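Holo prediction. Input below; ligand is 3,4-dihydroxyphenylalanine.
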Amino acid sequence: MLETVKELLQEVNSFNPKSEKEVDFFRLKFLGKKGKLNELFADFKSVPNESKKEFGQVINMLKQNAQAKVDTYKGTFETESNDSEIDLTRPVSLDNLGSRHPISLARNQIVDIFNRIGFTVSEGPEIEDDWHNFTALNLPEEHPARDMQDTFFIQTSPDVLLRTHTSSVQVRYMQENKPPIRTLSAGRVYRNEAISARAHCIFHQIEGLYINKNVSFADLKQALLYFAKEMFGEKTKIRLRPSFFPFTEPSAEVDVSCNICNSKGCNVCKYTGYLEILGCGMVDPNVLENCGIDSKKYTGYAFGMGVERIAMLKYGVKDLRLFFENDVRFLKQFDKSI
Ligand code: DAH
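Structure of the complex:
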């Protein structure tokens, strides 16, 4: 029995409350009517005479210490929550810090990878004229390839529209700068498309443009292979398929090996082992000439990718709409501080 009392004494001595509630709980537990001390005083009668002295001393000490603790802490927490005594020097709580949006994370990574091989970022307007979005890019009026991108028009004749790709920024950059040119155009683009798990009327693109003397298709392929490995891992392979874009000739679409199934085939890559990530090609001489660059002296490559697509592959997101809903339960998963 003496042992139990000593244990209780230890509990009392090490009591270090954080709130008023804890103090109240403590007071009731030890000093309350049905508390430990009253229990012990009741038990005192049955203690053998020879131990009564020692036992009594310990219980008294227990009572005094418990009372001292209550006296010390009672009321101290109430004043802290009192508005008039807000302590402005207290460090702020970092509980509700925001996190970067996954599209920003993917964009920053892409930009960072190309920065390392000399590309810098250029920006342009989201509201464009027809010339910068289409005509300069070898898409004259009535050209059927204009239908590849359903356009939101703000005004007709003269046409003002929401840019359908960031290639319009490349046009502006070529007009204002002389080769060698190494630029990335990053930003929001708009297309009149039905919203689904794989498409949205607003999305983000990053396009690259390199113009210099003697730029070859091999340079393009090497830059893209470097990008794919940096973005998706050292073992990543790329595959180029011939394609068509009005502004590049020849043109290709680029696939990366599926890192979900290691190219063995799964439902994400539709059992092909590869996933499409971007379009690219050698800049059509007509585009260079339209933008005031001598196509006999210079050649160049260009590529364009959807940031959502890259983010979906990188983070295993199956529905593109999640990027636009801003549900914190989704966004929190990209918080690196968790
Ligand atoms: N602008 C194209 C699109 O939005 C993507 C693209 C393809 C950009 C090939 C390029 C390129 O610069 O060379 O569909």
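Strands lie at 120-122, 127-129, 153-155, 160-162, 181-190, 202-212, 238-245, 248-257, 274-283, 299-306. That is the main takeaway for now.
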